[in-house]
Amino acid sequence: MARTVIRGGLVVTAAEEVEADVLVEDDKVAALALRGSDTARTWADSGADVIDAAGHYVIPGGVDAHTHMEMPFGGTESADTFETGTRAAAWGGTTTIVDFAIQRPGQAVRDGVDAWMAKADDQCAVDYSFHAILSDVNESSLKEMDVLVDEGITSFKLFMAYPGVFYSDDGQILRAMQRGAANGALTMMHAENGIAIDVLVEQALAEGRTDPRYHGEVRKALLESEATHRAIQLARVAGAPLYVVHVSANEAVEELSRARAKGLNVFGETCPQYLFLSTDNLAEPDFEGAKYVCSTPLRPKEHQEHLWRALRTNDLSVVSTDHCPFCFSGQKDMGRGDFSKIPNGMPGVENRMDLLHQAVVDGHISRRRWIEIACATPARMFGLYPRKGTVSPGADADLVVYDPAAEQVVSAETHHMNVDYSAYEGRRLTGRARTVLSRGRVVVDDGAYLGEAGHGRFVPRSTCQYLV
Ligand code: URP
Ligand code: ZN
Ligand code: ZN
Ligand code: ZN
């Protein structure tokens, strides 16, 4: 048996902060022992390997519940493969991703799941799982949901946006939610009124408003909050829990807050880009704004303080990346002269843990809340807890020795994502993952990559563990 002691760190979980040593046996956390205790002394004398964590935090590996590796979208494919994207995740202290397997109209849900399983197989540096995207809700896809839930695919994303691509109408959404209420699946919603947005897109283009910033103007906050409201009411009618993805507008947060004040099982996710970037970025000249085109769109800066507050009150419970990178050169380019042809999505899987640690440094959230929104709650929301998302005996040894004092300057020159720009170029951050373990194996250490494609395994998930 391989034994490793992570010694001298401050163990930070969503629940507590404790000066403790962590014993790892093979791929699991075996035990924690208070510093200086007899048990900790026994470990020191046992000949186990030692990872020195003095002056560092020992945290659970990040759980990024929203990524899109090698996703065909907008006439191209997101630039990170499962290999490059999960390696970048590991560099950034994220040791589990949950990606999206896409059902296309006319296909079985199973076809999408099989295709995405094949893409990820033997490629991943860290563990992974899948949600399924439903683009064709019909009698047979509803039946498939039951089977997939039993196989560990327990969450399904529906789109109120992108008519003709992923869009479901309200009747389809209601049916999928009813099925989820019956089989335990969690409905994830892309809440934007895509029918209305398409009208505004057409009008903007006809009037010559073609620059990237108009992407933000036509995808109005009101059309996010309207869809959020509708999704909540449909979920209430179905008696189903609801998780709204990539929330960016304060008006949408208000819908979530109202629903949550009623005690409903309605949850919200936001992403670093909405917390740290704004329409100012979308308005950058020389088509640079295209780097920041994603949906829901970036909002005016005033929205940020509302998102931070909602993260503190738990009206937003999770921060995922929606990592969906497209290169500026050759991909974002496709939308020069027509913002609606800019592939939607931004990179970030490598940056999330550090950006959120910066939020701790800046006083937006506490250290334990950092771990809660980035590790523990996504794990519980999507049925991965306590195997993932915490540091406790029996959990997978997905651990990060985090240096809270390390200074870094984010740059595409030094990042590991397969994309030619960083959305956070030049940003100074305090904090960085020093040593990263995935199931007991050191995959990153002190600036060296020691991982391997194929180490990461598919993790089947139980149903949502976060319901009130
Ligand atoms: O712009 C985005 N968010 N791209 C990824 C697809 C989605 O809607 O999550
Ligand atoms: Zn979406
Ligand atoms: Zn409302
Ligand atoms: Zn997404």
From TrEMBL:
PTM-bearing positions, type N6-carboxylysine: 157
Primary enzyme class: hydrolase
SUPFAM superfamilies in the record: Composite domain of metallo-dependent hydrolases (SSF51338), Metallo-dependent hydrolases (SSF51556)
Superkingdom as given in the UniProt entry: Bacteria
EC number annotated for this UniProt entry: 3.5.2.2
Cellular component, GO, one term: cytosol
MF annotations from Gene Ontology: dihydropyrimidinase activity; metal ion binding
Alphabetical keyword list: Hydrolase, Metal-binding
Amidohydrolase-related domain boundaries: 57-441
InterPro entries: Amidohydro-rel, Hydantoinase/dihydroPyrase, Metal-dep_hydrolase_composite, Metal_Hydrolase, Metallo-dep_Hydrolases_sf
Post-translational modification: Carbamylation allows a single lysine to coordinate two divalent metal cations.
Cofactor(s) the record lists: Zn(2+)
Family membership: Belongs to the metallo-dependent hydrolases superfamily. Hydantoinase/dihydropyrimidinase family.
Protein's name according to its UniProt entry: Dihydropyrimidinase
